[in-house]
Fold:
Amino acid sequence: MCGIVGYLGNKKAYNILINGLRRLEYRGYDSSGIMLYNGELSVKKTKGKVSDLEVLYKNENDKRGNIGLGHTRWATHGPPNKINSHPHLSNSGELCIIHNGIIENYDALRTVLKRKGYDFKSDTDSEVLVNFIEEIKKSKKVKLGKAVRLALKEVVGAYAIAVFDKSNPSEIVTAKLGSPLAIGIGESEYYIGSDPSPFLEFTKKCIYLNDYEMAIISLKKGLILREITKDTILDPFIENLKHNIEEVEKGGYKHFMLKEIYEQPQSVTDTFRGRLISPSLPIKISSIEKSFEKFKSANRIIFISCGTSWHASLLGEYFFEELLRKPVEVEYASEFRYRNPVINENDIIIPISQSGETADTLAAIKMAKKRGAFLYGICNVVGSSIARETDTGVYTHAGSEIGVASTKAFTCQISLILLMALDLGKRMNTIDENRYQRIIKELSKLPELIERVLSIGEKTERIAKKFIKSPNFLYLGRGYHFPIALEGALKLKEISYIHAEGYPAAEMKHGPIALIDKNMPVVVIATKKGNYQKVVSNIMEIKAREGEIIAIVSEGDKEIESIANHFIEIPECDELIAPILANIPLQLLSYHIAEKKDCNVDQPRNLAKSVTVE
Ligand code: AGP
Structure:
């Protein structure tokens, strides 16, 4: 959570910082702030969005300076107000810090510093850290780089920081543990970001700091990379980024979420590129090829993840058990890491994450690794911490997802997991050849099928209008559609603040049916094949209690059309592909309800895109 941005070079730092903050706002939007140095150090910050911060910069004179830091906050310590906003200054006013993460021992450090005469304006752990660095710098008479390193050796917690020292105004010191930090290298200029989006239009050369690494970035001496604990100098690995700037712009859509929903045919094409070349050729996922023996001999496969990625994991369980005939478990990373799970060397753990930075998933990976499990990651963000912590894995290649509510990343996750299950099933001989051929043929047409589903956009919008006042929703699905019902409910609650519950359709009669009356909208996924007739019976039960039924059905289904109050058709397809398609109208429904309620669709209250705190 929190986005950090920095610049040092010849350009006007303000422009880079404010644009960078807009792009990083998905990481937190409780408050924001900027520090600029132009002979004098100036800090402006405010509660609220980056647009509120911009208002403070009406005067062009205030925007001067070629070096600066910016921060957009997701509040952890202390309420989201101006005082707790970053950047934070040290007591002398010489040092300035921006921080993403949590310093767990900040209270103990604050007590020590208070005894030495420091005082604190904010409730934040970050203000403690900048003063701790100042105390070390002064008492040990060392330069900023060394002071930061010595301070971080005493710190417990997670951080991506950038620190500026007024007495050496051509340098910024950065460091990372747990939270992400990318450095863009230009011609005699450097950029800092929680991800590369603030500098994509300026440079493609990027260094991702690893945990326990720090970079002293100086306009005079260049960039020096050091290991924090051992204090060794490291050779920086400069990556050539493949992202483009369009990915992080809205491209004419009202919201990123809508753009990302409509991008799904292309995203899935990218997920399948080079992997599903043609139905007549074998699936090619190189990490599966290389780790096939591990999969074959595995006793058990465990998916770990959070939120939407957990829903993808649940569908993964259904796909893998069906096509591989191996025992599969699905775990919330936050529960898994704090229990004492039985894990051994014959287990394969599959963490799934869009951001690749989710703190609980990362911690669960580390724990499973210690216990000898083989870790196969599924991530969207290239070079992310989870991608680097796992033994091997596969990228979803959904492209940048900016909307806090995950849409295209989820669709790519479930499409990829199905492809993996088909590949493994074929290699293990656990799937009937005819069935394999049938599914693979349909799967290779998935982008076109998604395109067809997206054409129901307007109809979904019309249906959405009727429900903007509904306080509750139920989502029901059986079999492969159950994880989609959960995801549909999550999507609605996170962006429209309508309370929604997902249930296996058959569970309804064990409790939730008590909620049904004429004021309860019930979304039922009821495509042909699978448990179709059983779901029809569930729909009849809802109808008998006057619930308002919104049914997601296969094209041409006259039976449900005559019963449901509203229906949305998706192309008829194999029952393993149907959940991928059924999820799309649910995304659109949530989007249109939230948009009509005037909610902040891309930045829902209290949420952040990557949850880098426990
Ligand atoms: C998605 O809409 C959510 N905002 C959230 O549940 C998210 O899926 C979860 O935090 C996991 O994130 P990850 O995939 O980046 O690990």
